[in-house]
Amino acid sequence: MTSIEAIILAVIEGVTEYLPISSTGHMIIASSLMKIAGDDFTKLFTIVIQLGAILSVLVLYWKRFFQSLDFYFKLLVAFIPAAILGLLLNDVIDELLESPLVVAISLVLGGFLLLKVDDWFKANEIYDKANPDAHTKISYLTALKIGFFQCLAMIPGTSRSGASIVGGMTQKLNRKTAAEFSFFLAIPTMLGATSKKLYDYYQAGFELSSSQINYLIIGNVVAFIVALIAIKSFIDYLSKKGFKVFGYYRIILGIALLLIHFFIYPLTTI
Questions:
Q1: Long-range CB pairs of 65-74, under 8 A, 24+ apart, other chains included
Q2: Which of 30-39, 110-119, 189-198 has the highest mean pLDDT?
Q3: N or C: which terminus of the chain carries fewer CB neighbours within 10 A?
């Protein structure tokens, strides 16, 4: 990996982490095109730079994040399904992380889903206008159900934020509240994933060189700055316009990747 490649991946992470278009999927595609996807450090890098994106949530929502102990317990409950399944399916997930073809298929399927989400849960937004505080109280059961939806993102290309936001909307949360809870849920999820990845990296006998440590620092800084901008823009857009544009984007990108795979160059051999 070079400094330029690290910056490119970090920008992609910052832009896509909190959008329902799959940050992991985009980084798999980018790293595959740069021919570094199979490198062990690249796999570690794409996970660890999520810490920068986490920090952006803490900075933007620091008042709300420190609101109550009950809030932390709900985040923990929502995190438990991903923690358990992540440990059980670790090897399977690592294999999927090397497959741009899986990403392409997931992008298309998820795109069609996002085209319909606004219509399916339109009542959430209408009800919210009449009861502005109704959606701010998330129960433990609701948090757990959102946590199970988040597990769908273990399939690359699905989108952690997209899955958890839709999960929240199935529990009658409006788009904005579901998105913000998804942002908060990213914190324990990404911390857990980063810790596990670092542990596995060292258990496998690898050690970080000084240049690799520098890449991780650069990646986290860039991801943090870009994510700050992306989160604010996404919340404003989502509250007003909904998911359709993200659905169309996913479908177009996914189909383009499939066409490349079947008619130009097999993605699995990039």
A1: 65/184, 71/184, 73/140, 74/138, 74/140, 74/143
A2: 110-119
A3: N
